[in-house]
Specification:
By secondary structure, the protein is α+β, with helices and mostly antiparallel strands. It is globular. It has a five-stranded mixed beta sheet with strand order 1-5-4-3-2. It has a single domain (3-87), classed as YaeB-like fold. It is built from three helices and five strands; from the N terminus they run H-E-H-H-E-E-E-E. Strand 2 and strand 3 (56-63) form a beta hairpin. It is 27% helix and 34% strand.
Length: 104
């Protein structure tokens, strides 16, 4: 699973947006453009190889100088990218670098 594969999926329109992602994005005024920008330019900060049906990742990127997280999964066999959710991280849950979770 590589960022190049994700970018190819975006360019080919092989992206599935979960209902949860779309609802969350609407409620938080996050555009599809912002999420795809983060996926194209961001940094993988967590990987979840055991997630099913496909391994997933947490990506940190910036949109309009603000941090944004996107959780995605990629179907290697089918070449499809799944957007699970997107949100602006907050300091209650993440360190100031937006990469490291705070310990509860």
């Amino acid at each position: 699973m590589s960022q190049l594969e994700w970018i190819k999926a975006i360019e080919e329109g092989a992206v599935e947006w979960s209902a949860h992602a779309l609802k969350t994005m609407f409620e938080r005024d996050i555009s599809r453009e912002a999420v795809t920008h983060v996926i194209r330019t961001g940094e993988v900060i967590e990987e979840y190889p055991e997630d099913r049906p496909f391994p997933s990742t947490l990506i940190l990127g910036f949109w309009q100088n603000k941090p944004l997280h996107a959780v995605t999964a990629y179907d290697t066999a089918g070449g499809r990218l799944y957007i699970i959710t997107a949100y602006a991280p907050d300091e209650r849950h993440f360190q100031p670098d937006w990469k490291v979770r705070r310990i509860k």
